[in-house]
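Pasting as-is:
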Amino acid sequence: MDFGSMFGGMAAFRNVHSVLILGVLVLCSVVCLAFIVERLLYFWRIKLNPEEALLRIRSSLLAGRIEDALNLLGDVKGNPILAVIQAGVKNSHMPREQMAEMMRICQMKQRANMERNLTVLGTLGNTAPFIGLLGTVMGIIQAFRDLAGAQASANGASVVAVGIAEALVATAAGLMVAIPAVVFYNVFLKKVKRIWTEMEVAAMEMMALMALQAKDPASGGRNAG
């Protein structure tokens, strides 16, 4: 698509409202692209099987060696699944109900991090077409005003046709912003739901490991270490 021929030399740019609306849509596209890239990088870093992480620390947890388990987990920053597991390990000395509550609190915090900027994408996906439609409507109004002007007697209906064609550019620009915003919003939302499920599984497996530790006489109970 030749954007130069689409936007270059357009009569719509003679109107302040057309320039303003297209400028808003360009700004929306930049914001949309920035948030899409940021979320792609965020979710790309979250590549972990919670069962593998729990398998690494299983023996340490069962033996009550909490510090060893935390060292095996390593840096959990930016990884919500590891963060939930870490919350369970750090609070493994608590009763099961309190330990489960601490992991639940961690899950809620991590979900807020995962959903960051998704509201912006959803809003852009919903509002960008209406911004473009507003530009089109205002452009059509201007086209009919041109029809009543001096050029109408010389050019006839072509004045309206050209004006409407130029006004529709705003709708096209709005859709170009909205479509990727909606697509990636749904993709990221699906990733959030999948990771949330994995966090739930990790929390339940942590509870099961702590139950085994409490029943294992060799570990000296939950307070061993």
